[in-house]
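Example record used in the benchmark description.
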Amino acid sequence: MINKFGNLRLQGKSLGKLTFVNRNKVGSKGDINVAVLNVNESLNTVMVTPQAGFDFAKPFGTELKLINAVLTGGEARSNQRGGARVVTRTGTLLELSESGQDTIPEIEFDAVFITGKDKTPFGRVRSADAFDHNDLILYSVEANYQTDSRGGLVIDRDTNETTITNYQFNFIQASKSGQPDNDGSFVRILIDPTESEKLTPDLKPGAKLVPQGLKFAFVGNATTDWTVYADTLVPLEEKTLTKTATNNQSKPDDKEVKK
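Model output (structure tokens):
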């Protein structure tokens, strides 16, 4: 499977102000209790499956905080026999007066979860739950072309050529290469055409690249659960050298210490 990551930790406070609306029942059988919340005093809502024992008898507008939240794939009611695959949000919902905070350090929420065709930012997630940034080995690059509502290629009227929406950089995870249990070892990252065309001339199979500016979107189809976007890719050696140089600059000179 490609981009089959399972769960991504979500930083609750990155969603903004959350206020309680009411209880709702979801799931393919309509048997899962969720809390419906308004986001940032707007008409936008989010549904969260709370911890066991959560009190749904709260007044409308009660301000809550979400901690130890997780994004994962679930099923919604639909006309399909197996239900529709959707992203679900679970976590601990507390009133503001209650103590409690994320067990994951804030600095580890290094990526963004996005929704919709316009890629609207929803909240910050922990990319390490998906894969190790330093574990990716490139094996191919492919262009993805813009298609119309029927799946046909869109032709640019000015150039009479097909339009490339992005390039997919296909990776194998080094830690799973050669292992018998390597299902789900493929990672696909999409990058804007302009940036991709800067990167590809010097790349060869086996290149070790580190993604920068990661964004995750939920897909939930037969091939994958997640689409991953990145701003760019940096060679692992270059990143390591930059980090080493930064660490050396931050250390005081031995002679200065002795003085």
